[in-house]
Amino acid sequence: MHRILFRWLVGAVPVVFGVTVLTFVLTSLVPGDPGRTILGANASPAQVKAVDAQLGLDHPLPVRYWDWLVHALRGDLGNSITSGVPVSDQLSSRLTVTLSLIGGAILVAAIAGVTLGVLSALKGGWLGRAVDGIALVGLAVPNFWFGLVLMTAFAVQLPVFPATGYVPFTDSPTQWFESLVLPVLTLGVPATAPVAKQTRDGVLNQLNREYVRVLRARGIPERSVIFRHVLRNAAAPIVTVLGVVVVTLFGGTVLAETLFVMPGLGGLAVTAATTQDIPMVQGVALVFTVTVMLINLLIEVVYTMLNPKVRT
């Protein structure tokens, strides 16, 4: 465990540093002027220049990044250029929404994907071909289009769930659940495809192993053979695929939060990027990067537990 943590730290530090540098440079190169955005189109050049100086935007790019980095290492991510609100406050209030979307989507992908994969491996035939078709469609269909279909079907034609908005869990658990259903399905259903395909391939591979025939010859119940032995031995690559799916879901949240008008980090990142709110963009990029790195650490730990050969 200590070796895994050490390797993770050695790899995480340069990745986080590189992402923050790249984000800072690319955001600074976006056409426009934050001072002009704040004051409006009618502001004079002198007024815009004064606001830029007040925000420290008149300093060279390396100096501005170094200043941000020093404050970030102290836990201070600065204030939003456009609203003046502390970046950490905005991130903390919106992180719950994004994590709710990702958590729900990965739950849907894991349960539906593993179930379909196991059934396909055991039954074969048309179900196996159906899983291949679902995998192909899931990879080809854009999340945004699928979300529009769900919204039209279950919020407009059949008004079962709200089309837009988010209700905090503390306000109403029922409305919180209802507000998450459509965006979670928008992200989770397409993500089911790679999980189902990997599960089917992994289970089929294990079913051809000698130990399965031995277990069946000893009279072990088929359910025990599948769920206690076959699925456990096939779990390591499935967990790896789930880790990749989680990472891709972070990109999908930008579309889902925009489509369903949810106050998450994805929508915040889009707004901040269009207004050149560099501290806010940096904060979102930092949170996303650290979260992805923590997920990679968790996946590696679980993979090591499932595959003893990795520990040797």
Measured on Cα atoms, how large is the radius of gyration? 24 Å
Number of strands: 0
Terminal residue distance: 12 Å
Helix content: over 70%
Could you describe the largest sheet, including whether it forms a barrel?
A: none
List the defining traits of the structure above.
mainly alpha; 312 residues
Give an overview in words.
This protein has 312 residues and is mostly helical. The chain folds into 2 domains: 2-73, no CATH class; 88-311, MetI-like (MetI-like fold, Orthogonal Bundle), CATH 1.10.3720. The protein is 79% helix and 0% strand. It has helices at residues 2-28, 34-39, 45-54, 61-73, 87-123, 125-140, 143-157, 173-207, 210-217, 222-233, 235-259, 265-274, 278-306, 308-311. Helix 11 runs antiparallel to helix 13 (278-306). The radius of gyration is 24 Å and the shape is globular. It starts with a helix and ends with a helix. The model has no long low-confidence stretch (mean pLDDT 84).
Quick gist of this model?
With 312 residues, this protein is mainly alpha-helical. It folds into two domains: 72 residues, no CATH class; 224 residues, Orthogonal Bundle (MetI-like fold). Helix content is 79%, strand content 0%.
